[in-house]
Amino acid sequence: MKGRFPIRRTLQYLAQGEIVFKSTVKVMTVSYNTSGELSEGARKFVFFNIPQIQYKNPWVQIMMFKNMTPSPFLRFYLDCGEQVLVDVEDKSNKEIVEHIKKILGKSEETLQKEERERKKLSHPATFGPKKYHLRECMCEIEGQIPCPGLVSLPKEMTGKYKAAMKEKATS
Question: Which stretches does DSSP call E strand in 39-153?
């Protein structure tokens, strides 16, 4: 891998991102300067943390504005029309990440709950309405007998045949 810090482009590094935004966040803008001490934390945030945020939040549009403002800041546009402004002047990239995670990130409990739901839905033994499960019917699982409504069962497996055989045996 070539370029500056190619580790930033590995899946392992991208998956280590801590910030998963709430579903209300639609757009994130980062305004910072490419020189100066005040923007040092913002530059490191853009360089190291923005790729992780993009990986974890593919539905969020992220825009960068370089050298357009005297002091660095982040602005978030929410789906209800509100804007959240975060001042990142003189903050390190770790402080910025913690602050964003606290105000707009999903909590650990919410993330764990969503992960459990995702695992529950993907479990192959569950079936029901497509809205909640991977399969609607037991017959969709490989190795199971197909639905009698679609393919008729062998006569040995039908109740009428079994009853007739029983009757024949007793008479």
Answer: 61-66, 73-78, 83-87
